[in-house]
From TrEMBL:
Pfam families: ABC_tran (PF00005), DrrA1-3_C (PF13732). The lineage of its organism: Bacteria, Bacillati, Actinomycetota, Actinomycetes, Micromonosporales. Gene3D superfamilies: P-loop containing nucleotide triphosphate hydrolases (3.40.50.300). This is ABC transporter ATP-binding protein. It comes from Phytohabitans aurantiacus. It comes from the Bacteria. Residues 11-241 form the ABC transporter domain.
Amino acid sequence: MAVRMDVTPALRCRGLRRRYGDLIAVDGVSFEIALGETYGLLGPNGAGKTTVISMVAGVLRADAGEVSVAGQPMTPRTPAVKARIGYVPQDVALYPDLSGRENLRFFARLYGLSRAEARSRVAEVLETIGLAERARDPVGEYSGGMKRRLNIGVGLLHQPRLLILDEPTVGVDPQSRNAILASVEALATGGMAVLYTTHYMEEAQRLCDRVGVIDNGRLVAEGTVRELTALVGEHDRVVLAADGDLPAAAEKLRTVAGVREVSVGAGRLELLCGDGRAALPEILACLASAGVAVRSVELREPDLEAVFLHLTGKSLRD
Ligand SMILES: Nc1ncnc2c1ncn2[C@@H]1O[C@H](COP(=O)(O)OP(=O)(O)OP(=O)(O)O)[C@@H](O)[C@H]1O
């Protein structure tokens, strides 16, 4: 007998729409997140990421569209569905005079955990967010990044199946940024579905199993990083700083297998290759035989920045 797999997604959104006055902030957004999957919404400031996830989290009414969590439709009358979600907004709402542990205990009790449950759950969460050692200090003395981490901890207290994070690393120091990324990775490995918004393509590349590229309120592409970079033609760029007769060397390089284009600048050669890594040994041998001294080599593989530029004609960065 065939085994039936449960393929109900952790989250399904269909046709989400929202306008603010004349501005259509979100214009028919649909996507799904599987159990244990980390899905990134990647787009520049103002693309509509916060509006999408506020609707997903049930804190903003959609003008149209549907959200279901683990197969259950979400409506204002389904608090049990909301309870499966941990939503971590950009704004931090914590009590500065209370310690990190006291803040978490307060929210745990608010979520209805018993005193004993709260104590053990708070201890677990402090480990997950890497703040156990600072748990006794008042939150007013925390760095911005530590406050962000504690905010994520609040979203984890009730053990949600789906964690929604809205640009959790914006304005955060590098140490906290790393701690946040590592926590998300650990949670995903533990089976949590994660919806992560960011305008940092490095974060999307590191964390996300699949990425939805959002611009002007629309999803313009979706897929794994590999699938998305294939959209731009999968050309690697090899940039060499070199001394010698570069125009003559460029002529020779054009005959090397895998090299598609060669351009020459002052002390610099730039090559487009199908697979830069594979072509590199022959490129270097060719340059050596042409009497060119190579000072540095840089291999740039296509990234999500290139994908975004390709799809929208704009840069992700401001
Ligand atoms: N309450 C509001 N009233 C009017 N316009 C709004 C409101 N909230 C958002 N907008 C507008 O809707 C669009 C989408 O905003 P949103 O915050 O969802 O984008 P975002 O991708 O999350 O950007 P950011 O990275 O800056 O948070 C923007 O043009 C924004 O100015």
